[in-house]
Amino acid sequence: MTLSIPFDNSYARLPASLFTRQSPQPVTAPELLAFNRALAADLGITEGDNAEMGRVFGGNAVPAGADPLAQLYAGHQFGNWNPQLGDGRAVLLGEVVAGGNRYDIQLKGSGRTPYSRGGDGRAWLGPVLREFVVSEAMHALGVPTTRALAAVATGDTIWRDDGPLPGAVLTRVAASHIRVGTFQVLAARGMTAELQALYDHVVDRHYPDVTSPAGLLDAVIARQAELIPHWMSVGFIHGVMNTDNTAISGETIDYGPCAFMDEYHPNTVFSSIDRQGRYAFSNQPDIIVWNMAQLATALVPLMPDADDAVKEFTAAIHGMGPMLQANWLRRFAAKIGIAAPKSEDLELVTSLLTLMAHGQSDFTNTFRALSGKAAVDQFTDRDAFRAWETRWRKRLETEDDPVRVMDAANPAFIPRNHRIEEMIAAAQTGDMMPFERLMNVLSRPYDDQPENADLTRPPTENERVMATFCGT
Ligand code: AMP
Ligand code: MG
Q: Looking at the domain assignment, is residue 135 inside a domain?
């Protein structure tokens, strides 16, 4: 059989200044490492043999119907404005429509583009497999996210700070790759006609009920106000919440120095370049509000009166904090078995988190243990936990089925950093078994899988991963 992708491209018909047509750059010896069959089937893709899929998803052959391009965007990186970014090492092959929704098919690590600046346009195997595993795990956890369709080893050596590394290309699937930074670049350049065209495209594609820029802002705010508490409820730290890494669709995008926390602490940071802790675990709600304020600023030129727009948008931004708090409480209350929390329940949740932070409790295992008997073992101050537990059990008396609520909100399995590192090290020697195993176990994160209990174990002191480098 030959690979066939039912392309139906729309971004390529937008104003030409939004992108540059760009083919992927061929690699030396493409070898298909991973292919997501279930996702391919959902997208209406007919698979070909491995050699053909290696050529297409490695960038050596452009499939029929593709119209490859690199997208233009800008963004605030760690709070600093960068007037031009863009796909520096990615190309959008095109889009497919499946189940009434449109999806981008993008190669990441596919060579230089006009937006590469000083970069080589490439990615190495480690981050490609990390994004593959983590994005698919997020999907299985129920968190909106881009997906991973394929990973290809290139046979080329690429150079990073730590020396020569094996190259790879990821095929990423997204509702779209349109970012806050896509709006920002057009607003900053005064390209109002192009901004309007992007707005129309986004409304048509993601928010068909929206009738005004203010409505679009509200809709994106609502999605992001759902997404970030959802991340936090599974202990996820994005690591680089720059405005170019915030998707308009409300999906999680751009897995760089991201990680799931092992032991709970609100100030946890993983990115080695985030020295100020801007993107620390508990800062994520504040940062998304800041990012939405940047989107609001970029939408002002589409409004008839700038002063009125600023007034209206400011109110929308101010409304986001309470939305985030309510969604956070709903997610975390579910983790302790409360389906419809009252405001008094906030104290019960936060006092547990305080005990966890003091006791360096494992985030995932502590919540998962609440529906069993051994939760106390996660705490250094056992008496303090017992006291909390008594209050909690009293509160649960009025809940219908707290165990079901908890087990649906508390995964047993997350992609732990030390397991990801182990998987990458194995893949570098040609052993894809740890990858296959992680993918398999993480596809059912809420199921107890006693035979895979070793994957619930937190890292030992030696295994602990302190930073997941931007090492991209
Ligand atoms: P990121 O931090 O991965 O979101 O990337 C920020 C910007 O840098 C984006 O415009 C990327 O396309 C670009 N970029 C990252 N790595 C590379 C690379 N190796 N070569 C070229 N551009 C890159
Ligand atoms: Mg990015």
A: yes
